[in-house]
EAL domain-containing protein (Amycolatopsis ultiminotia), 248 residues
Amino acid sequence: LRMEQDLRDAVHSGQLWPAYQPVVDLRTGDMVAVEALLRWTHPKHGEISPAEFIPLAEESELINVLGKFVLHDTTRELATLRSERGLDLSLKVNLSVRQLDDPHLIPAVRDALATTGLPPSALTLEVTESALMRDASAAAEVLTALRSLGVLLAIDDFGTGYSSLAQLRRLTLDTLKIDRSFITGIAESHNAAAIVSSIIAMAHAVNLTVVAEGVETPEELTILKELGCDQAQGYHLGKPLAATELFH
Ligand code: G
Ligand code: G
Ligand code: NA
Ligand code: MN
């Protein structure tokens, strides 16, 4: 509970900040987008992973406060980079399942775009499969409303839930992110590569852009290019960094 109070304070005292991980187009090799990944620099405990504090925030309304902060801060930063540096970069922001229940989510997204001038098509909202499973029809309604704002939608961690294919049938999405557990080993295992190849073929058949997550080696990158994957991210291409480091 101490940590929950600390987290509440952190939002207002600048301890939370977005790291940005490059997303690379596999045809051109260009960085075409960045994924915002929230970081917490705690004054006493140092860096705390979002894998710890996001689940904590999800236990209460705090996730909506964090989510709003991330949306506003990152759209502002990206809009500035685009206008002042002429960078043609898109932004990917993770949404937590609880944010889909928040009646303020849609106005908050609309407001972030209007305030910063970031074009809606330059923003992709990423939702995990497991989030979509929970209250499937309510989530679908919110996603449809978000998409009608002109933003793009991605299904994140694809393949790790137990209704991956059902989600693809049901929802209108733009991007499919192959979970990194499927990328690990594609250079060594024919079966692993064949599974990724099939996911890419299926995604393309329903007009989704495919992003491979967790690319850690040049060999994995080569195979993904051969398989026709559209975009990739991972430590081999770039770790999540503060904007000042990534865009110095
Ligand atoms: O950056 P990485 O370290 O460690 O992130 C861990 C987890 O936290 C990932 O599942 C990632 O999607 C999630 N995460 C990171 N930033 C955000 C955010 O701004 N919002 C939400 N909902 N999840 C995030
Ligand atoms: O759940 P989501 O896909 O949003 O979270 C991305 C997570 O994966 C973050 O924690 C990010 O730091 C991490 N990540 C990004 N690239 C790599 C990578 O190449 N290898 C590993 N192990 N983790 C990565
Ligand atoms: Na993500
Ligand atoms: Mn993922």
Notes: The mean pLDDT is 94. The first strand starts at residue 16 and ends at 25. The first helix runs from residue 2 to 12. DSSP finds twelve helices and ten strands in the chain.
